């Protein structure tokens, strides 16, 4: 059987934490007198916490000191961590768990490639951390998507070349990162937004039967 490196983003692919990010960012923005919308939150998908806060300040035409900037970064993370305490196995995105189990059954290597610095505790709460051979997250990469560093690091740690890697992403920045790396990009979400991906599905449950074997024979 062919083998590929299967690399998954976290937020919006494995688990729906977008709602928690939105609430945390909205509260932070409000504390700075900035109105923060769902549309703006969409633009922060796949973007690091530092760059997300910079964007919010830019949208609100606000300037803060480096000290306050760090305080707000910490505030957002504390809010987010408090919100995700309620996470459990029911929060896994539709079809993901079965897809991961099927990959394991086929002895395919699996990695997480996420900008989140909270990836490990989230995977533990979901009860699926043991399904990942490699976890690359915001604690061990320095460049945010659309830079492909997180995905290149993941495939390297799995022992695979980029052209033998498949990335599952829900953000434009993530799809662009996968494409830049020369990896197959599978988008999860709306086709009109993720049109740069090689293929797009709303959910894993929308993928055709035996799709993993199709991917194993697919080249960029």
TrEMBL record:
Keywords of the record: Magnesium, Metal-binding
Residues binding substrate: 9-11, 25, 44-49, 52, 76, 114-118, 145
UniProt binding sites for Mg(2+): 9, 11, 169-170
Superkingdom to which the source organism belongs: Bacteria
Entry GO MF terms: beta-phosphoglucomutase activity; magnesium ion binding
Active site, UniProt feature: 9 (nucleophile), 11 (proton donor/acceptor)
BP term (GO), one: carbohydrate metabolic process
Family membership noted in the UniProt record: Belongs to the HAD-like hydrolase superfamily. CbbY/CbbZ/Gph/YieH family.
Protein name, as recorded: Beta-phosphoglucomutase
